[in-house]
Amino acid sequence: MTIIETPAGWPANEAEALAVQDELRGRVVLDEPGPAPGTGLVTGVDVAYDDARDLVAAAAVVLDARTLTVVEEATAVGRVSFPYVPGLLAFREIPAVLAALGALGEAPGLVVCDGYGQAHPRRFGLASHLGVLTGLPVIGVAKNPFTFTFEEPAEERGASSPLLADGEEVGRALRTRTAVKPVFVSTGHRVTLDNACAHTLHLTPRYRVPETTRHADALCRRALKEAMA
DNA sequence: GCGACAG
DNA sequence: ATCTTGTCGC
């Protein structure tokens, strides 16, 4: 369990955060296919909060992409560095996520995070921001549609429908379990949307949300409780 | 202007 | 995200 340090020059308010998104947005890479699904390593990251005590805990869980077994885990705890503001989630989560990723003893491979990447009001959600700062391939799998409207995908697992913004497909509502509410996939950095959806399906052999986020979610909650005790 | 809004 | 009991289902 390492300590989270807020990066120097981290935005102190919404105006500064918006300026940072504007500045970094152009560094996103969208023309790389990304790693092949089912090969190499896949790392899930997630963050838990206790705003009353100003505490935050993050977890990074590395899985073997082929077997979906846990290969390594890392956690980090510290103080909250930004409030939750829709559209600025990255500024709240990234310091913690970077600390957890940095505590790993090996390269994370593909990173899967909760939230959006390109499917974002300014095309620079958490997954894209994390990708630009780390240089790693990153995708975002969100549990809620945020501000996007979408057509209900067919009932079968694997069915999807586009998330549109200005007529462009910035993400997909993807059914990972038959007859169950879809998840919302978008690419963050160095991965194609098709590939991001393929990865998401590989990571959901049994539950609606990816194994990576299930492990990371459980671990960061555990880390937060330990930090309080 | 008001409400909605990833986690 | 988080506050929270029981409950239906595989």
Automatic annotation (TrEMBL):
Pfam families xref list: Endonuclease_5
Which residues of the sequence carry a binding annotation for Mg(2+)?
D46, D114
Q: Which residue numbers mark the site Interaction with target DNA?
A: Y84
Q: Which Gene3D superfamilies match?
A: archaeoglobus fulgidus dsm 4304 superfamily (3.30.2170.10)
Q: Which GO terms describe its molecular function?
A: endonuclease activity
Do the record's keywords include Ligase? no
Q: Which reaction does it catalyse?
A: Endonucleolytic cleavage at apurinic or apyrimidinic sites to products with a 5'-phosphate
Give yes or no: UniProt keyword Cytoplasm. Answer: yes
EC numbers, comma separated: 3.1.21.7
According to the record, the signal peptide region is none
EC class of the enzyme, as a word: hydrolase
User: Where is this gene product found?
Assistant: Cytoplasm
List UniProt keywords, sorted A-Z: Cytoplasm, DNA damage, DNA repair, Endonuclease, Hydrolase, Magnesium, Metal-binding, Nuclease
Q: Which domain of life is it from?
A: Bacteria
Q: Write down the required cofactor(s).
A: Mg(2+)
Listed CDD domains: Endonuclease_V (cd06559)
Report the family membership. Belongs to the endonuclease V family.
**Function, as annotated:** DNA repair enzyme involved in the repair of deaminated bases. Selectively cleaves double-stranded DNA at the second phosphodiester bond 3' to a deoxyinosine leaving behind the intact lesion on the nicked DNA.
Task: List the protein's name.
Answer: Endonuclease V
Q: What is the lineage of its organism?
A: Bacteria, Bacillati, Actinomycetota, Actinomycetes, Kitasatosporales
